Amino acid sequence: MSKEHILVVEDEEDILELLRYNLMKEGYRVTGAFSGEEGLKAARSQPPDLIVLDLMLPGIDGLTVCRELKMDAKTRDLPIIILTAKGEEADIVAGLELGADDYVTKPFSPRVLLARVRAVLRRRQAEPQAEADLIELHEIIIHPGRHEVLIQGRPVNLTSTEFRLLSFLARRPGWVFTRSQIVQGVQGEDYSVTERAVDVQIVGLRKKLGAAGKYVETVRGVGYRFKE
Fold first, then answer.
1. What is the bridge-based pairing of β-strands 140-143 and 135-137?
2. What distance in Å separates the CA atoms of residue 193 and residue 173, rounded to the nearest whole number?
3. For the domain with range 131-226, which CATH number is right: 1.25.40.10, 1.10.10.10, 3.40.50.1000, 3.90.78.10?
4. What is the mean predicted confidence (pLDDT) over 124-143?
C-alpha cells in the first residue's frame, strides 16, 4: 500500500526538490506547488494527508494560505507543517494560532523534517482511536470522537491545537500543568515551541469559549489548569 500523500508548497525549486526527494525516499506520494495560489488549488482539488507550507511565497503568502484552508470545511482538518526562514516568535505564534500543527525553520535538517512529518501523521491517525468518552464539565461538553465542543448546546469552532489543549486540561480538572507538560501532552515530546506560544494559544482558547473561558485558570508561576 502506498504511503500518505504530501503537498509541498515552496517557491524555491532546489528546496522543493530536496523535500520531494527525501519524502519520496520514505515512500510518501508528493505533489509540489510553487506559489500560494497553486497550493490552494492543489489542496482543494485533491486534499492531501499533510501539507508542508512555506510562509514566504510569491503572491498569496503562507499565512494567508493557512488561513484560507482552515476556513474551508473541506480542508480545515488538513494537518499543516510550516516551513520558513522566519524564525521569529511572532511568525511561529501566528501560524500556530491559525491552526498549523507544527513548524520547522530554515535551514533545516531533512531528518528533522521527516520526524516532524511522521509525528504529525501519527497524531492524526491516533485521534479517531483516542479516548472517545464524552467530557462534561460545567456547561461544556467535549466529544473527542467527533472533535466537537458544545457550550450550553452551541458548537464552538476551535482549531485542532486548541481542541487538543482544551481536552488535555479538561481530562484532569484541578490538576496544574506546566507549559512544558502542556506542549508534551498536546503536541508530543518532539514538538518545539516557546512558552509564549502556549500563552497565546490559551488566550485564543479563552476568547473562543466566551464566558466559559473562566474555567481555564492561570496558576501564577506554574502553568494552567481546568477548574473543577
1. antiparallel
2. 24
3. 1.10.10.10
4. 72
